[in-house]
Design a protein that fits this description.
Distance between the termini: 23 Å
Shape: flat
Radius of gyration: 20 Å
Largest sheet: none
Number of domains: 2
Helix content: over 70%
Number of strands: 0
Structural class: mainly alpha
Order of helices and strands: HHHHH
Length: about 140
């Protein structure tokens, strides 16, 4: 028999997924501290940041879907944030590997070159993320 999914239902395996993600994060922190000799303060800081991001992802994927209507502003902010972080970082890597950064440093100097190379790719990534979100009506993938 096929089960009919209601609009707010979640797959049964999601609870196990979130538990596995948390346990894997803790295990990687322990392995990093004990075997890879990562300093304790870096291990704790990395785990804290990872738990913060897991909580944010849990909020977006689970808690937010229980509301009646998703917020268009929050979805737009997520597209801008994800575009800036992923596409912007990719553009920053391309800028660094292509040698354009060294050209900027030769013509403009060190500080203007650093400011340009750390802001322009992320701003362009944010605009691309917003453009992609607008094309999808700011609907997140796998969301109703």
């Amino acid at each position: 028999m096929s089960k009919v999914k209601t609009k707010g239902s979640k797959p049964r395996w999601w609870k196990h997924l979130w538990i596995a993600v948390l346990l894997t994060t803790i295990a990687s922190g322990v392995v990093g501290y004990l075997f890879l000799r990562v300093p304790l303060e870096r291990t704790v800081g990395g785990l804290a940041l990872t738990f913060l991001m897991i909580g944010f992802a849990y909020y977006i994927r689970i808690k937010r879907n229980l509301w009646l209507r998703p917020s268009m502003k929050m979805n737009r902010g997520l597209y801008v944030l994800l575009g800036s972080s992923s596409i912007g970082f990719g553009l920053w890597v391309v800028l660094g590997l292509s040698g354009v950064g060294r050209l900027l440093t030769n013509y403009l100097g060190v500080w203007p070159s650093l400011i340009i190379s750390f802001t322009v790719p992320y701003i362009i990534g944010a605009f691309i993320g917003d453009w992609l979100g607008r094309r999808r009506n700011y609907r997140l993938p796998l969301c109703p």
